[in-house]
Amino acid sequence: MSDHQINAGFMPLFDSAVLIVAGELGLARAEGVDLRLHRETSWANIRDRIAIGHFDVAHMLGPMPVACNLGLSPISSDTIVPFSMGLGGNCVSVSNAVWTGMVAHGAPGGVDPMAAGKALKRFIDERAAKGLPPLRFAVTHPHSGHNYELRYWLRGSGTDPRRDVEIVIVPPPFMADALAAGRIDGYCVGEPWNSVTVVKGTGRIATVKAAIWKNSPEKVLGVRKAFAEREGAALSALLRALHRAARWCQEPANRNDLAELMALPGYLAMPAALQMPMLTGHLDLGGEIVDVDDFYLPFDKAANFPWKSHALWFYSQMVRWGDVAHSRGNAEIALGTYRPDLYREALKPLGTALPGANSKVEGALTQATPVGSTGASLVLGPDGFFDGKVFDPDALEAYLADSAVDDEISRF
Amino acid sequence: MSTGPALKILVIDENRIRASIIEAGLRDAGHHDVTLLPDVSGIAARIETLQPDVIVVDLENPNRDMLESMFQLTRAVKRPIAMFVDRSDSASIEAAIEAGVSAYVVDGLRKERVKPVIEMAIIRFNAYSRMARELEEARGELESRKVVDRAKGILMTSRGMSESEAYQLLRKTAMNQNRKLVDVAQGLVTAADLLGKGGI
Questions:
Q1: Hey, what CATH topology would domain A4-88+218-284+292-348 get?
Q2: What local confidence, expressed as pLDDT, does residue B1 receive?
Q3: Residues B161 and B97 in one domain
Q4: Set of chain A residues whose Cβ sits within 8 Å of the Cβ of B65
Q5: Which one, of B29, B31, B13, lies nearest residue B100 by Cα?
Q6: Which residues of chain B make contact with A44, given a CB cutoff of 8 A?
Q7: Residue A255, class by beta-carbon neighbours within 10 Å (0-12 exposed, 13-18 middle, 19+ buried)?
Q8: Residue-level pLDDT at A372
Q9: pLDDT at A126
Q10: Number of residue pairs across A and B with CB atoms under 8 Å?
Q11: pLDDT bracket for residue A208 (50, 70, 90)
Q12: Range of the domain at B97
């Protein structure tokens, strides 16, 4: 088989692992793909290089391709998502001062989002009553799972993210330093950037993505649409290699090797030991050790399936926070960005378990549930939101109206 | 050519040498209102004071996502800022990204006023890259010469050779082994260091 050369951009974050393993372990090569990995320094660079064709595919934030196709980015190009890089992996960390304030207002410890969020809200109210400035939280990018899950958590536990706090952008490697220096009071970012703060003793993990929205989408493989149309066979081959890489990453027996690989200077350039909480869900929150179920899933629970309901939920949050005005056309653009059809087509020859539908009601599964699927068996969920709400992609308007009313009420 | 008030240009680049090269180019082209910022601490306040028309940012800057979001969202910038000036001008966008530079331009500026600024930034970025590459090569050459000199010194001391005999031996060995002269010399120096005969 002749080799397809594919140029792939990635950010030095743990969830680029699936892409890196596909290259480093020869899985791409076995599918006839000459995978060239390029480390980048910002999501903006990834977006630009996809736009001008330097990269064919890239490790991207889940909402980024949706934002790109909606024309919300300074440079946009048609980008599609035929593969998800995994579920979960993020935490919300706060400074020691904020944690002390939260404890004074009843934060019980652990990672329960509602309990932590309500304590934070009471602390925020106390500060406001004293005339202190709003707390400042950081996320990695406006169009990121981090931004939307932080806002969802704050709003769902009583805090208005538009009025009660300030949200700024800080690159992941600078988060821990910014917190330690007091430039920010908290942040939402992927591991290991939360454990870094815990190890330094400058803050505490307040809650985790895997509890705010269980088994929720994070990074994806963004693909230049023109490339997908021109090189369909090459893309399919790459998706099969990524599928095998993801399965390898999920295997507990490979955790040490994976952590060692990601620790290399060309990737994360951080000690392997720091990568382990991501893989085990065994987290030191800051003096309290917990085991979080499904903290980060690179493969299990159909983690690689690009659910259209995930794309549409991201879109619903863009509408909610004023990034874009809702219209049927815009919703269609969001839905068309995620391409489960390409995932199915690529994996069909492997006889892999595939979900029966392209979309699901998010938050409907309260426990792990075997689902009807083609081929082998498949388990999904739980996929609940911490506030008990449900996102039915067929009832988008009602969901938008519900949160709009809720957000309006919070102004009083 | 359209005229108007002088363009205010802000260059954000951690690489001070490159920033100076860009600044010099812009001044030569008649732009005298150029500000250089090497880092992004307190950037929002600086932008609020400066009110730049064009902001040039190098692509290596890890704060690009933060800067872009600030340009789009904060009140620090009074008018909306778009990346480059003309989205349809894909050739110049590509040239800029290849050179490693991005430019953000406030709304309402005519593209013929801004394009020369961006073109100048591209030219200067490319010139800097070329210069850095040449410097790297020169540095490599100097290092090679030092290694060869040390290898010659080792041979002169240990074998009692003249400088030219030592050089001939190194050259002959390199030719016989089909290796580079500097690699043979490096091998000898490393071996001598390991055997405690270094420092000659």
A1: D-Maltodextrin-Binding Protein; domain 2 (3.40.190)
A2: 44
A3: no
A4: 42-44, 140-141, 169, 171
A5: B13
A6: 64-65, 68, 102
A7: middle
A8: 65
A9: 97
A10: 57
A11: very high
A12: 9-134
